[in-house]
């Protein structure tokens, strides 16, 4: 009996030991995984994250990428986007534009972060009064839209200067756009999926007049327009009278249209910035933005 009890005790002890080893192994694996995840960060990214935790303790940083722009680190915090230098001392709020590739890097990233609720031609700042921390660039959601659209009269615009595309029998919407604006590209893609007639009037907010000239003078303006937004080279470029584009520029300046896109309904109701398809359809049909 004594030998039997001792054997049973040994089995219980061994079983407990296995359970304990399993628990320890799980903790070790978790620690290794966390360490590996941190180690996967570039040293400079990890360093900036540590600095931001100390200097912006109330900001929950989702990601830091110091390889996007030379000399700057792109910081994502939820739906917010801002930049800091590699020392983590200087915080930069605004848009980064690549003049070589002619791409609005900030607009592109904000669309990636939250493609359904982004608006406007520029990143805006949070109200940071309650947090006591610097404001950061934010993807502004639909909840911040004005309840009622503004109004503008298009009577002063000549027929020239417009690129008309889409469903010619659909409802008409006029868009002031820039071919190097990421929001305009997103809007164009959305409008292509809708049963509407688009009267697009290019204005040069991001130095795109040369590209607008090429699109406007193309044999097939609609094809050229979508090629321009896609970043594709325009084929069979030629020259033509672009005084209509000059009129677009003057109209935009005189009415304070400093950002793109600007969307104008047939009755003159106007909204500024990108809208998701559902909100855009409601606006074009006569609803609020």
How far apart, in Å, are the first and last alpha carbons?
85 Å
What shape does the CA trace take? elongated
What percent of residues adopt helix (DSSP H or I)?
25-40%
- The helix-and-strand class reads alpha+beta
Radius of gyration: 27 Å
Percent of residues in beta strands? 15-25%
Output the helix-strand order.
HHEEEEEEHEEEEEHEHHHEEH
Count of discrete alpha- or pi-helical segments spanning 4 or more residues: 8
What's the total number of strands?
14
Low-confidence stretches: 29-39, 116-132, 136-147
- What value does the average pLDDT take? 79
For the sheet with most strands, the description reads: 6 strands, antiparallel
Describe this structure in words.
It is a single chain. 38% of the residues lie in helices and 20% in strands. The chain is α+β, with helices and mostly antiparallel strands. The strands form three sheets. Strands 1, 2, 3, 4, 7 and 8 form a six-stranded antiparallel sheet that branches. A six-stranded mixed sheet has the order 9-14-13-11-12-10, with helices on both faces. The longest helix is centred in the N-terminal third of the chain and has 39 residues.
Summarize this structure briefly.
With 289 residues, the chain is an alpha+beta fold.
Defining traits:
six-stranded mixed sheet, six-stranded antiparallel sheet, alpha+beta
Summarize the helices and strands and which ones pair or pack.
Layout: H1 2-40, H2 43-55, E1 63-69, E2 72-77, E3 80-85, E4 91-92, E5 97-98, E6 103-104, H3 105-113, E7 124-125, E8 137-138, E9 150-151, E10 163-166, E11 171-177, H4 182-192, E12 196-202, H5 209-217, H6 221-229, H7 243-254, E13 262-265, E14 269-272, H8 277-284
Parallel strand pairs: 11-12
Antiparallel strand pairs: 1-2, 2-3, 3-4, 3-8, 5-6, 7-8, 9-14, 10-12, 11-13, 13-14
């Amino acid at each position: 009996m004594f030998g039997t009890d001792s054997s049973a005790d040994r089995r219980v002890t061994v079983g407990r030991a296995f359970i304990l080893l399993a628990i320890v192994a799980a903790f070790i694996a978790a620690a290794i995984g966390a360490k590996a995840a941190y180690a996967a960060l570039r040293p400079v990214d990890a360093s900036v994250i540590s600095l931001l935790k100390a200097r912006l303790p109330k900001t929950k940083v989702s990601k830091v990428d110091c390889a996007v722009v030379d000399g700057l680190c792109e910081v994502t915090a939820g739906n917010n986007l801002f930049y800091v230098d590699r020392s983590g001392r200087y915080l930069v709020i605004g848009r980064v534009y690549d003049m070589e590739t002619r791409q609005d890097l900030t607009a592109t990233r904000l669309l990636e972060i939250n493609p359904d609720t982004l608006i406007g031609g520029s990143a805006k700042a949070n109200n940071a009064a309650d947090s006591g921390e610097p404001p950061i660039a934010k993807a502004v959601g639909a909840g911040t839209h004005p309840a009622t659209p503004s109004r503008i009269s298009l009577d002063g615009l000549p027929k020239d200067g417009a690129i008309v595309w889409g469903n010619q029998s659909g409802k008409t919407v006029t868009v002031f756009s820039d071919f190097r604006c990421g929001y305009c590209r997103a809007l164009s893609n959305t409008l292509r999926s809708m049963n509407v007639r688009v009267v697009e009037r290019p204005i040069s907010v991001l130095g795109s007049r040369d590209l607008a000239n090429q699109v406007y003078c193309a044999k097939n303006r609609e094809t050229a327009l979508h090629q321009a937004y896609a970043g594709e080279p325009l084929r069979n470029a030629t020259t033509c009278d672009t005084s209509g584009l000059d009129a677009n520029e003057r109209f935009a300046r005189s009415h304070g249209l400093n950002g793109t896109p600007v969307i104008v309904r047939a009755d003159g109701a106007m909204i500024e910035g990108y809208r998701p398809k559902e909100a855009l359809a409601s606006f074009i049909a006569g609803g609020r933005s």
